């Protein structure tokens, strides 16, 4: 099966090809099912491969499957080959598994969208690109996937491109990502010049020979790319806006898979990262940890006050990614990947749940505004498809959906518990492991920030839950909402099962479970180092995490659950300065706009209005004009009469002779000087003649033509 | 004796050239050139170049100039308009040529030359056999290249002479008439 | 008087220069294509004369060899040149080279 690993990325690509070229022969629904089925097969194949690799035992150190030589230039050579090891298989499982469920969910979610086939083409393409990213055995192939998922992300964010907001969000995501991608590219260049190869095996085999500073620069550049792709400070700004895309896309790309590519990249580069030093004592890993934890805290503070159901989740994603980078930064690679794994389930679940809520709200809204059964309405263009101003994503418009959508509510509750880190849920195990290892690594400050963030996470998650599902409906639309079809709720339930149980199944016993044994052979000896100072006992750490999570949930209950807001107006919280700062996302977008976008626009305007018009165009037009005038003048010399040319030749003879006379060696010149006046006179008169000839031929053409006329008469 | 011949023939040669340049009859011009070439052939003989002299007479005066005569016959004895329509062309040309003579003639007085007397060198200096030996040994490559050039010239002349290889102005006018 | 009675290489060279200049004059002045062409032949011939004179002076046959090649090339030139003149005449009905002046700038 390992040899057939190429089938796994091929299947979604096949879906792209079929739906692109032969899609018009299929109904939208058939296209959707085809795409889903192919990803499902890929998931099944991955599962088979995983069991096969497990059968090989812990000695299995990864296997490279080479398809063909991709490109060769000089001694630069890249092969198209896949690296099958524990990490890539795990990522592949997440991508195909969660991807399959989200594909399935999308069938119901996008059922009435006219662009359903395009949607599934993009989605399949994304799965393909993401698989290339994780399966590639070298950085270039990884980068191919990296760019591919960026493209798909752009295409899917602006999927409903007829709305300017969505198109702008797509552009924002793409441009912000470009900044990071450029850094990755630089990192790859540097890797090539340093190691002479881009294959992981070659690079990690010769790390000792490279100075820590160079490794530091390479990993720093990679990390800059990660801040773009995985939405960390300072490049996180695109992810919240990326929620403009269809909700399943948010779940798949902007929560479960693509945004974790940065974590994957760093963990994949772990051998380099371990040795990399940025400046003197400051490791690249320290930078990663600090950025990660600050991002986690920062995004959590914003999520506290958001009213858009998807934005809360978006900021929580940024925050959770921050945890993963904290894990990477403190060397807890397995814990980071574990959190990536569990997060993929519960965050996909939450997004899909919110999509289900919106779907219900949408139909409820339709039912009341058009007075017709929602099922018969094929105009369900979801989030932004409406002309009226009713916002189905605004949590203030919801409330009391527990009774209307029980399946969604239950699964959402499970997802929320996992995100909040409620004891024994999957998120609890993975997050706690990161935090514990942070503390054990000697990063006490980071640990405290992480705990504070965990508290906020629990609070905002349940604030959201209570606002959406608790109390009584605050609007007519909420009152008329109803449960989504089973094609949507079944994936929710499967994901809920994983979100609830993944930690128990894979994570126990602590730091020694199935998951850890799986990754151990690959990451053995890498990463975590015990720091100095006091080590919190594991049980104490677990207790702290549990208390913090429960306290956050309790506070949310006190504030939003015990006495839910009855009306929309009441739900609109009034707060002080901090509330305003949080609600307006610390004005980061505005600051970026003022500091970067605006000067850039001014520079562009200056370039366009002044520089381009006067300097560039001026130079171009000036040269053209010079040549035109000069050509027009010299063109007069070409009279068309052969004898004029002959006269020019003879005159030229004199000039050349004169120049030769001036430049010949002394001995010869002495001889010529004996010639005396006649020769010199000859040259002088010759020059005069040349002037005469020029004057003749430069006279207006009219004369020449009038003179030329009689010839025709004589002949 | 040879000095007298030289002076006489020089005058003939220059006179023939002047007839060519200022004559009003093309046939006279061609005949003047025949005279000129013949005179130059005599000079070649005096300069101990019998083979070149023979070729000059046979090829130049005999073949090439006859070819000229044929062409003149073909196109009529029209010397073309003798007046000048290009301003300054004629005075400029005359002045320039005079200056050329003024410049060239003193330059020809090169010091290192030994001077010419007919008896200094034996006749074996330039018999055709030694010339041929030189041509077909040291100069064999140029000879072959020239042969190729002659072939190309032959082909070129044939192509140019072929009727229908190009449209003449008359034919164009005729076509135009048909259209009108 | 010695310059008149003793003919040296210089004499031939000066004669050659004069003939060459006259050839130039012919090319510059005459509008008849045939006469211009003959003038070119005159120039070639003048050069040939100087070659032969110098060959004699330097006691080297190389100069005569060059003349031989010049003649050959001249023959080729005449063949093509006359064909061109004939074509020109057939096309324009005249041998006036100033008739062909349409290629001006």
Describe this structure as you would to a colleague:
The complex is a heterotrimer of chains A (715), B (180) and C (105). Chain A has 715 residues and is mostly helical. Among the domains of chain A are: 306-313 and 320-374 and 391-579, no CATH class; 584-635; 641-715. Chain A is built from 30 helices and four strands. Chain A has helices at residues 7-21, 28-56, 86-109, 116-135, 139-157, 164-195, 200-205, 212-229, 238-241, 247-256, 261-268, 270-275, 284-303, 309-329, 333-370, 401-404, 406-420, 426-440, 444-469, 476-479, 486-507, 514-523, 538-561, 568-571, 577-583, 588-635, 642-663, 666-675, 677-697, 701-714, and strands spanning 63-73, 76-84, 277-279, 282-283. A two-stranded antiparallel ribbon of chain A has the order 1-2. In chain A, strand 1 (63-73) and strand 2 form a beta hairpin. The longest helix of chain A has 48 residues, at 588-635. Chain A is elongated, with a radius of gyration of 35 Å. Chain B is an all-alpha fold. Chain B has two domains: 1-79, NADH-ubiquinone/plastoquinone oxidoreductase chain 6, subunit NuoJ (Four Helix Bundle (Hemerythrin (Met), subunit A)); 128-180. Helix content of chain B is 71%, strand content 0%. Chain B has seven helices and no strands. Chain B has helices at residues 2-22, 26-46, 50-75, 89-107, 128-135, 140-161, 169-179. The termini of chain B are far apart. Chain C has 105 residues and is mostly helical. Chain C contains four helices and no strands. At the B-C interface, helix 1, helix 2, helix 3, helix 4 and helix 5 of B face helix 2, helix 3 and helix 4 of C.
State the major sheet of chain A: 2 strands, antiparallel
- Number of distinct beta strands of chain B: 0
Number of helices of chain B: 7
Q: What share of the residues of chain A lie within helices?
A: over 70%
Q: What's the end-to-end separation of chain B, in Å?
A: 73 Å
CATH topology of the largest domain in chain B: the name is Four Helix Bundle (Hemerythrin (Met), subunit A)
Mean pLDDT of chain A: 85
What's the pLDDT, averaged over the residues of chain B?
81
Largest sheet of chain B: none
């Amino acid at each position: 099966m390992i040899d057939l690993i190429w089938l796994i990325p091929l299947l979604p690509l096949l879906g792209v090809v079929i739906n692109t070229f032969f899609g018009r022969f299929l109904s939208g629904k058939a296209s959707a099912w085809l795409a889903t089925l192919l990803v499902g097969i890929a998931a099944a194949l991955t599962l088979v491969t995983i069991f096969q690799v497990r059968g090989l035992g812990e000695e299995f150190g990864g296997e490279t499957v080479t398809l063909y030589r991709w490109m060769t230039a000089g001694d630069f050579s890249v092969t198209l080959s896949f690296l099958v090891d524990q990490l890539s298989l795990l990522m592949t499982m997440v991508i195909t598994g969660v991807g399959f469920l989200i594909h399935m969910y999308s069938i119901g979610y996008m059922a009435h969208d006219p662009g359903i086939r395009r949607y599934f083409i993009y989605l399949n393409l994304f799965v393909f690109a993401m698989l290339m990213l994780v399966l590639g055995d070298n950085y270039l192939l990884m980068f191919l996937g990296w760019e591919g998922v960026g493209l798909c992300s752009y295409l899917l964010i602006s999927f409903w491109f007829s709305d300017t907001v969505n198109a702008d969000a797509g552009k924002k995501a793409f441009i912000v990502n470009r900044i990071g991608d450029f850094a990755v590219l630089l990192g790859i260049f540097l890797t090539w010049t340093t190691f002479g190869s881009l294959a992981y095996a070659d690079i990690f085999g010769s790390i000792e020979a490279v100075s820590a500073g160079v490794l530091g620069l390479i990993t720093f550049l990679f990390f800059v790319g990660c801040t773009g792709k995985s939405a960390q400070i300072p490049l996180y700004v695109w992810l919240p806006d990326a929620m403009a895309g269809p909700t399943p896309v948010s779940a798949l790309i902007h929560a479960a898979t693509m945004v974790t590519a940065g974590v994957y990249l760093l963990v994949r580069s772990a051998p380099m990262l371990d040795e990399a030093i940025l400046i003197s004592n400051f490791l690249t890993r320290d930078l990663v940890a600090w950025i990660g934890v600050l991002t986690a805290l920062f995004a959590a503070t914003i999520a506290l006050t958001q009213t858009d159901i998807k934005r809360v989740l978006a900021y929580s994603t940024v925050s959770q990614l921050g945890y993963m980078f904290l894990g990477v930064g403190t060397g807890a690679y397995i814990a980071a990947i574990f959190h990536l794994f569990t997060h993929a389930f519960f965050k996909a679940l939450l997004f899909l749940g919110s999509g289900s809520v919106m779907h219900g709200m949408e139909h409820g809204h339709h039912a009341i505004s058009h007075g017709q059964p929602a099922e018969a309405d094929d105009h369900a263009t979801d989030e932004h498809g409406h002309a009226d101003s009713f916002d189905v994503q605004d949590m203030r418009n919801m409330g009391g959906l527990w009774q209307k959508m029980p399946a969604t509510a239950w699964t959402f509750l499970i997802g929320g518990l996992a995100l909040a880190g409620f004891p024994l849920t999957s998120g609890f195990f993975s997050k706690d492991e990161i935090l514990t290892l942070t503390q054990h690594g000697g990063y006490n400050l980071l640990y405290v920030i992480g705990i504070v963030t965990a508290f906020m996470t629990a609070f905002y998650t349940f604030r959201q839950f209570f606002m959406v599902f608790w109390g009584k409906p605050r609007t007519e639309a909420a009152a008329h909402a109803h449960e989504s079809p089973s094609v949507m709720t079944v994936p929710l339930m499967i994901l809920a099962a994983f979100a609830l149980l993944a930690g128990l199944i894979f994570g126990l016993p602590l730091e020694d479970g199935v998951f850890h044994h799986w990754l151990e052979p690959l990451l053995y000896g890498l990463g975590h180092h015990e720091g100095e100072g006091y080590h919190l006992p594991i049980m104490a750490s677990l207790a702290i995490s549990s208390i913090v999570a429960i306290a956050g949930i309790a506070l949310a209950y006190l504030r939003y659950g015990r006495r839910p807001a009855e009306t929309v107006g009441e739900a609109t919280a009034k707060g002080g300065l901090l509330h305003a700062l949080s609600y307006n996302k610390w004005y980061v977008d505005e600051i970026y706009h003022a500091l970067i976008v605006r000067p850039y626009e001014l520079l562009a305007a200056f370039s366009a209005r002044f520089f381009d018009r006067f300097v560039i165009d001026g130079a171009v037009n000036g040269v053209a004009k010079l040549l035109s005038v000069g050509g027009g003048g010299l063109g007069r010399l070409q009279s068309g009469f052969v004898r004029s040319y002959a006269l020019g030749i003879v005159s030229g003879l004199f000039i050349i002779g004169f120049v030769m006379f001036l430049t010949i060696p002394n001995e010869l010149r002495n001889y010529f000087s004996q010639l005396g006046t006649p020769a010199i006179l000859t040259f002088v008169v010759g020059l005069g003649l040349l002037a005469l000839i020029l004057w003749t031929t430069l006279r207006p053409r009219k004369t020449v033509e009038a003179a030329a006329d009689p010839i025709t008469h004589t002949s | 004796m040879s000095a007298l011949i030289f002076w006489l023939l020089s005058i003939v040669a220059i006179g023939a050239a002047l007839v060519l340049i200022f004559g009003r009859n093309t046939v006279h011009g061609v005949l003047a050139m025949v005279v000129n070439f013949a005179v130059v052939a005599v000079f070649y003989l005096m300069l101990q170049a019998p083979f070149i002299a023979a070729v000059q007479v046979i090829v130049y005066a005999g073949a090439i100039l006859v070819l000229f005569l044929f062409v003149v016959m073909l196109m009529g004895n029209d010397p073309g308009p003798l007046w000048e329509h290009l301003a300054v062309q004629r005075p400029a040309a005359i002045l320039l040529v005079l200056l050329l003579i003024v410049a060239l003639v003193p330059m020809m007085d090169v010091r290192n030359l030994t001077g010419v007397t007919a008896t200094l060198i034996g006749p074996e200096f330039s018999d055709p056999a030694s010339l041929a030996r030189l041509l077909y040994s040291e100069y064999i490559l140029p000879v072959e290249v020239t042969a190729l050039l002659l072939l190309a010239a032959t082909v070129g002349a044939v192509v140019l002479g072929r009727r229908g290889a190009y449209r003449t102005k008359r034919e164009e006018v005729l076509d135009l008439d048909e259209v009108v | 008087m010695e310059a008149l009675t003793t003919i040296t290489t210089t004499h031939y060279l000066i004669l050659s220069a004069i003939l060459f200049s006259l050839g130039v004059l012919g090319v510059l002045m005459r509008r008849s294509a045939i006469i211009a062409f003959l003038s070119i032949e005159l120039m070639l011939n003048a050069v040939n004369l100087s070659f032969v004179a110098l060959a004699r002076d330097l006691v080297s046959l190389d100069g005569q060899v060059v003349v031989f090649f010049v003649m050959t090339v001249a023959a080729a030139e005449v063949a093509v040149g006359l064909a061109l003149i004939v074509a020109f005449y057939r096309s324009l009905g005249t041998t006036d080279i100033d008739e062909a002046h349409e290629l001006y700038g």
